[in-house]
């Protein structure tokens, strides 16, 4: 019996429903990619449905030293679920049977395959909400969000995934089932392993259950759209709003390139000569936000906005948000490949970051579109290209490197919400320094002595560089 | 010719693999793996085109796709999934033909070249069906339990096929209907082949409704099958041929709209311009035809129907996927239902999910189709309707089958939207 056959035999002993162990080539190809770059064939896909099953698989993998890559619905933009070293893909997406809301403790208890948006919907029935709102929340699993510490537009006011995790059940790379944290907001017993696991990109263990914090659902919301001729002035306007004591739930920005792309795709009557459009949403008590939205408008006027519209109804608000929603389909019309970055800078550096992005765009002759969560400095510079064009992709690689460098020089970070994965691994030292990365590596070694848990992520291999040209 | 030539390889690059299509896909839901999702299938077509996987290996995932195209509606980057799917079907079909046995060829030949394209033959087939129902052979088959010996899929369809009109009744149909007052629109009615063979009554009611709303309705003689079943089975050359013949035939008449009551046929008619875009002498003519073709609900919504009678029933609506996802007709059927006096509309959860009928999918992939149908019926039962309304013959048969399977035929019926509207207008 060869190595693979031997592992297959053991997996069949661990998972009694053999339909959940996939080995056909068409299945392996179907679990070889995510929403980022590249595709890597695993040797097995195991669709797990309990912590016991995960534990058994991890024990086999640890003994046989075969890599294990956990996977939710693979909407990752950083390569988290890619089995870059082959081995086993551990699919948790079918494991969505547990979604309990405890309104008294204001928590949700969920199994890893539950879709993020379902948690918020279930909480809404009790007047509560699960605040993190990655734009993929209708498809992403909570386990994927936890592993990548995802955020979304509401991050400005409500924070990101890690701010809502009270406790976890985790299977360690050696196959032990452990619990971290618990059901209380306050908990300082020992090291905060919960926060360590959240955002560890599946490199320290497999999340098998989560206890999530819920908050009261704001009773109403209001939306405003404003147009600026000058991008820098729009940045100043954002700072002024935030320093005036108003925290909007969302501040989204579209740059001129995205405005033009949307207008060419589906004309909405947006001004193509404007440098920026801001969409601002406030949530809270109706009387409070009715007052605040007027103040926001006054600030926009004061800062020289060309035009500002307040939506008078939910339908009008939806209409205003349409422009932002159309950015994604609009920008991939000319070329098919989208390299979506999430480099984040301190809020005050947004205008400066925009200036640097413009220079990068010209220097490398790439199609660069910028939109995203301007309120928290989490912009999304997207390079639109064609991955079949080798020469173009080399320029894209250089442009991406320089975007990362610019973000870090401005006191920012490589990744605000997508994760490091494969694509940003080679830039880790740039942000954290040699010793910073080394301390992380030591944590990794302590948890995963055989280096089987999602290898090839976060930490660069010797001499690793960003490669987008195939 | 290379084996994989013809796969829509370039189109696969517009998929950014975000996965937004996963929750919309009925087969992903029932078959529980990425291999049977739109994103998975697009990737497999790409892998096959690159020679990383064989055509045999992508055959099952492609064949088990319903082609409902719900994924296209939710796709943020407008991937042309239908085009990718049909390219794969055509390539697989070509390969199969090169390899298949004489017997299989004959079956395909009868089905696609003889039966569907020729209305005369389909009429013959439905005459046989009528004969089978009327002579007592049907009763005998049921009584003796012979019916149970038939494969389960055929036996279950037997129960739900409606009473077929006799050959003489079928010939009585008027070829032109004129309204009482002023003519609002002149309509060329597209009868469809399966629709007209099995549900000719619905076609009759459709025309009478249009007439009652002030339209002049003509049946253009010598019209053909729309070619949808051919196109979905990878027989693209035959589909193109049928499209051309239909365009030619309808060019002979003058009218404002070509109207049909079958969501699936309507979708095909609406895609003639895609189908024929590479043929210079046909592209413009196909565009003209597509511009004229429209579902009956769109026209009925523009008319003032004599909706006199109250229908005091709880109704739920199962949209035809091809009507919703391809023709993009969404609101009209809902608004028409709401216009019926005393009717209560209970929309069901996952309304957008295909019922599993999908052309001949429910015959060819019976087991998979029934799993999808059972999911659908769970949602249906949650809203406790007395009537399930659909807008396509395939969906209608499938809903009838679902009612049979759930054994709720004593309290729920499935009808075409047109039947309910006709009842409300006292049209029989």
Automatic annotation (TrEMBL), chain A:
<dbReference type="Pfam" id="PF01565">
    <property type="entry name" value="FAD_binding_4"/>
</dbReference>
<dbReference type="InterPro" id="IPR016166">
    <property type="entry name" value="FAD-bd_PCMH"/>
</dbReference>
<keyword id="KW-0274">FAD</keyword>
<dbReference type="InterPro" id="IPR006094">
    <property type="entry name" value="Oxid_FAD_bind_N"/>
</dbReference>
<keyword id="KW-0560">Oxidoreductase</keyword>
<keyword id="KW-0285">Flavoprotein</keyword>
<dbReference type="GO" id="GO:0016491">
    <property type="term" value="F:oxidoreductase activity"/>
</dbReference>
<dbReference type="Pfam" id="PF02913">
    <property type="entry name" value="FAD-oxidase_C"/>
</dbReference>
<comment type="similarity">
    <text>Belongs to the FAD-binding oxidoreductase/transferase type 4 family.</text>
</comment>
<dbReference type="InterPro" id="IPR016164">
    <property type="entry name" value="FAD-linked_Oxase-like_C"/>
</dbReference>
<feature type="domain" description="FAD-binding PCMH-type">
    <location>
        <begin position="37"/>
        <end position="217"/>
    </location>
</feature>
<dbReference type="InterPro" id="IPR016171">
    <property type="entry name" value="Vanillyl_alc_oxidase_C-sub2"/>
</dbReference>
<protein>
    <submittedName>
        <fullName>FAD-binding protein</fullName>
    </submittedName>
</protein>
<dbReference type="InterPro" id="IPR036318">
    <property type="entry name" value="FAD-bd_PCMH-like_sf"/>
</dbReference>
<dbReference type="InterPro" id="IPR004113">
    <property type="entry name" value="FAD-bd_oxidored_4_C"/>
</dbReference>
<dbReference type="InterPro" id="IPR016169">
    <property type="entry name" value="FAD-bd_PCMH_sub2"/>
</dbReference>
<dbReference type="InterPro" id="IPR051914">
    <property type="entry name" value="FAD-linked_OxidoTrans_Type4"/>
</dbReference>
<dbReference type="GO" id="GO:0071949">
    <property type="term" value="F:FAD binding"/>
</dbReference>
From TrEMBL, chain B:
<dbReference type="InterPro" id="IPR012257">
    <property type="entry name" value="Glc_ox_4Fe-4S"/>
</dbReference>
<dbReference type="GO" id="GO:0046872">
    <property type="term" value="F:metal ion binding"/>
</dbReference>
<keyword id="KW-0479">Metal-binding</keyword>
<keyword id="KW-0677">Repeat</keyword>
<dbReference type="GO" id="GO:0051539">
    <property type="term" value="F:4 iron, 4 sulfur cluster binding"/>
</dbReference>
<comment type="function">
    <text>Component of a complex that catalyzes the oxidation of glycolate to glyoxylate.</text>
</comment>
<keyword id="KW-0411">Iron-sulfur</keyword>
<keyword id="KW-0249">Electron transport</keyword>
<dbReference type="InterPro" id="IPR009051">
    <property type="entry name" value="Helical_ferredxn"/>
</dbReference>
<dbReference type="Pfam" id="PF13183">
    <property type="entry name" value="Fer4_8"/>
</dbReference>
<feature type="domain" description="4Fe-4S ferredoxin-type">
    <location>
        <begin position="5"/>
        <end position="36"/>
    </location>
</feature>
<dbReference type="GO" id="GO:0019154">
    <property type="term" value="F:glycolate dehydrogenase activity"/>
</dbReference>
<protein>
    <recommendedName>
        <fullName>Glycolate oxidase iron-sulfur subunit</fullName>
        <ecNumber>1.1.99.14</ecNumber>
    </recommendedName>
</protein>
<dbReference type="Pfam" id="PF02754">
    <property type="entry name" value="CCG"/>
</dbReference>
<keyword id="KW-0408">Iron</keyword>
<dbReference type="InterPro" id="IPR017896">
    <property type="entry name" value="4Fe4S_Fe-S-bd"/>
</dbReference>
<keyword id="KW-0004">4Fe-4S</keyword>
<dbReference type="InterPro" id="IPR017900">
    <property type="entry name" value="4Fe4S_Fe_S_CS"/>
</dbReference>
<dbReference type="InterPro" id="IPR004017">
    <property type="entry name" value="Cys_rich_dom"/>
</dbReference>
<keyword id="KW-0813">Transport</keyword>
<feature type="domain" description="4Fe-4S ferredoxin-type">
    <location>
        <begin position="55"/>
        <end position="86"/>
    </location>
</feature>
